[in-house]
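Pilot study result, target chain (285 residues):
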Amino acid sequence: MTVLLFGLTVILFNNWRTQQWLRDRRIERLEQEAIDTGSRLAGVLQHLSRKQQERAAELEMAYVSLSSDVDLGLVANKEGLVSSATRMQWNRMNVLQTPLAEEWRRHAAVLETMEPAFEWDAGKNSLIVMVPFFETYETSSRAAVLIRYDATLALVQVNEDAWHESLRQAGVLLASCLLLWFALDELVTRRVRSVVEILRAAGSKEGRPMVLEGKDELSMISQEFAKTITQLRAAENMVLEAAEQERRKIGRDMHDDLCQRLSAIKMKAEVVQGMIHESDANIAS
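Predicted structure:
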């Protein structure tokens, strides 16, 4: 029971560590994916814009929206006019009229520096990526790709994966504990009970002491105990035999001495009786 509780504690601690590790890896991977996707999309859109292939640009945005991690996305020029977006109704709208207006304002400086930017929210559940590009060969014709990633589902999946791993470990631990319990019961507990029965049966003088089979410590103990019991019984028989012989000797000695004394007394009594008869005869004459 103690081993099981300790194992469950270790599993819970490992679950927490696994969740943190998987969360950090998922966030790192999502950041890299967002930067790669934004950079690739900016390069493709720059090429398509210069060739005025608006339909192809819309298809690229539609392809990006297929990702389960992408929440919203759009492409807008420096004036804020949306040219393509993950929501078709945003096309030709001003970016400030879309749900990404706040993010556009916060990262508008990207259109001046022409350096990509990404930012997590406070809870690291949402990631904003904004990558600038040139719509034409003119440096003044600037636009940017703005994509918002929702990491909630990914982090929920991370937690589920961690719990699945913990449940797998708990199952392995439970199976190991059961196997250990059966092994201990078979190899130790039952044999200890047999040793106890041998000890209890040692008081009986009938038959030879039982011995456990095998070469383990309990078998060695039972074998040595059986030898000791056999030696004690032999010593006890020797003591009893010696006592019996001594009793018989004492009986013989007592019998012989008593008979001799009784015979002497009888003889003396007969002599005294004869002397008494002689004395009576003399007095009578």
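One observation from the pilot: Strands lie at 70-77, 82-85, 117-120, 126-134, 142-150. A full batch analysis is planned for the follow-on phase.
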